[in-house]
C-alpha cells in the first residue's frame, strides 16, 4: 500500500547521511504519499528536499519530479500555485533534460495555469516547448496530454476534442488503470466544454466504472462529481443529484481539497436550482475556504456568483460593486470553459443580480 511504503521510506530517509541519498529516498517517499493522496504530507516532504539541491552535483532540474510534486501537492491541498507556476516557466527552456521531461513538466504547468486562467502565461509555455513536440524522444501519452490541455483552454477547441479521443484510445490499451481513470475523465471534460454532452457522459461513466473496479474512493468521488456537473449543464437535476450524492461519503476524508471544493460547489449549484437557499449556503460554506486560498479567477467567479444566486433566492440585493467584482472575475475566466456548468450558471447569477438592481447586462 502506498501509505505503508511512505512510512518505510520516511524511516529510511532518516538513516541517510549524504544529500543525494536523502534527496533520492525523499523523492520516493513523496511519490508514495502522492499515490496515497496524502498531499499535505507530500508537500512537507518536497519542501524539505528543495534546499538539498545546492549540495548535489549536478544540481537537479528545478522541474524534476520533486519540483512537480511540490506544485501538484500544493495545488491539491488547496494552496495557491500562482507564484510557483510563474517562477517555474522560464526553466522549461533548459537544454540539459530530455524533450519528454520538458513536455511532461509543461503539461502539468499548463494545468495549473488553466486553473489560474492566465492565457498569456499559457502561450509562453507553449512557445517555449512547441519545438519539442515532434521529437521522437517524447512519449505519445505525454504529447497527447500536453496538447489536449493547451488546445482545450487556449488553442483550437476542435483539435482538443480530437486529441481527447486519441488519449482515450491510448488510455484503454497502454496505461495503468489509475492513469486511465484520470485521462478518460479529463477527456470527458474536454467534450463537456467543446464537444458532445452525450460523449462527455459516456466517458465519465467509463471512468467511474474503472474506479469502481479498482475500489478507489477518491477517484469515484472525482468521477461522480464530473458526472454531476455534466448533468447540471444539461439541466437534468435528478441525475445530477444522484451522482453528486455519491461524492458525500468521501468529502473531507482525503487531502484532495480541490476535489472536495469542486464537488461542494456543484452541490451548492444543485441546491440553488432546487430553490433551497439553506442547503446552498451550507455547501458554499464548505467550498469557500479552498476557493479563497487558491486565488484563481475561476474560483473567485464561482464564489461571487453562487453568493449572488443564494442572496437572490432569499430576496436580497447585492451591492453594485459586488456585481462589478463578479463581472471582472467572470471576464477573466469565461474564455477558458465557456460551456462549463459554472460558466453558464454563474453567468445566470450575474444576469439575475444585475436585473434585480436595474443594472445593465
Describe the protein's architecture and organization.
With 361 residues, the protein is mostly helical. The chain contains 18 helices and no strands. Helix 10 runs parallel beside helix 12. The longest helix is centred in the first third of the chain and has 18 residues. It is globular and about 65 Å long.
Helix content: over 70%
Described by its quaternary structure, the protein is: single chain
Shape: globular
Identify low-pLDDT runs. Answer: 336-341, 353-361
**Gyration radius from CA atoms, angstroms:** 21 Å
Counting DSSP E segments of at least 2 residues, the number of strands comes to 0
Percentage of residues in DSSP E strands: under 5%
Given helix and strand content, the structural type is mainly alpha
How far apart are the first and last residues' alpha carbons, in Å? 54 Å
Largest sheet: none
Pattern of helices and strands: HHHHHHHHHHHHHHHHHH
**Count of helical segments?**
18
- Please state the average pLDDT score: 86
Structure in a nutshell:
The chain is mostly helical and 361 residues long. It has helices at 2-14, 19-35, 39-49, 65-76, 82-88, 99-116, 119-129, 140-153, 157-174, 177-194, 197-214, 217-234, 237-245, 257-273, 277-294, 297-313, 320-333, 341-356.
Amino acid at each position: 500500500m502506498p501509505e505503508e511504503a511512505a512510512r518505510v521510506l520516511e524511516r529510511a530517509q532518516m538513516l541517510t547521511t549524504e544529500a543525494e541519498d536523502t534527496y533520492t529516498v525523499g523523492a520516493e517517499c513523496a511519490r508514495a504519499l502522492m499515490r496515497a493522496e496524502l498531499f499535505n504530507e507530500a508537500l512537507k516532504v518536497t519542501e524539505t528536499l528543495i534546499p538539498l539541491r545546492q549540495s548535489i552535483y549536478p544540481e537537479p532540474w528545478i522541474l524534476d519530479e520533486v519540483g512537480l510534486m511540490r506544485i501538484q501537492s500544493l495545488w491539491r491541498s488547496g494552496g495557491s500555485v500562482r507564484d510557483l507556476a510563474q517562477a517555474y516557466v522560464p526553466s522549461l527552456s533548459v537544454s540539459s533534460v530530455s524533450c519528454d521531461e520538458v513536455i511532461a513538466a509543461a503539461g502539468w504547468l499548463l494545468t495549473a495555469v488553466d486553473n489560474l486562467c492566465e492565457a498569456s502565461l499559457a502561450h509562453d509555455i507553449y512557445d517555449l516547448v512547441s519545438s519539442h513536440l515532434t521529437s521522437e524522444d517524447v512519449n505519445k501519452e505525454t504529447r497527447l496530454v500536453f496538447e489536449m490541455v493547451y488546445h482545450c483552454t487556449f488553442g483550437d477547441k476542435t483539435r482538443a476534442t480530437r486529441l481527447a479521443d486519441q488519449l482515450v484510445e491510448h488510455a484503454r490499451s497502454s496505461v495503468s488503470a489509475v492513469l486511465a481513470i484520470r485521462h478518460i475523465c479529463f477527456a470527458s471534460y474536454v467534450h463537456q466544454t467543446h464537444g458532445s454532452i452525450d460523449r462527455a457522459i459516456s466517458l465519465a461513466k467509463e471512468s467511474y466504472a474503472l474506479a469502481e473496479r479498482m475500489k478507489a474512493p477518491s477517484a469515484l468521488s472525482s468521477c461522480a462529481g464530473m458526472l454531476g456537473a455534466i448533468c447540471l449543464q444539461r439541466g437534468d437535476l435528478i441525475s445530477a443529484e444522484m451522482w453528486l450524492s455519491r461524492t458525500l461519503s468521501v468529502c473531507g476524508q482525503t487531502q484532495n481539497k480541490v476535489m472536495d471544493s469542486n464537488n461542494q460547489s456543484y452541490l451548492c449549484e444543485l441546491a440553488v436550482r432546487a430553490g433551497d437557499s439553506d442547503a446552498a449556503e451550507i455547501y458554499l460554506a464548505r467550498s469557500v475556504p479552498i476557493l479563497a486560498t487558491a486565488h484563481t479567477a475561476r474560483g473567485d467567479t464561482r464564489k461571487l456568483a453562487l453568493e449572488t444566486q443564494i442572496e437572490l433566492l432569499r430576496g436580497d440585493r447585492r451591492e453594485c460593486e459586488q456585481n462589478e467584482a463578479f463581472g471582472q472575475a467572470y471576464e477573466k475566466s469565461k474564455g477558458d470553459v465557456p460551456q462549463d456548468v459554472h460558466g453558464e450558471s454563474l453567468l445566470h447569477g450575474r444576469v439575475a443580480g444585475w436585473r434585480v438592481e436595474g443594472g445593465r447586462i
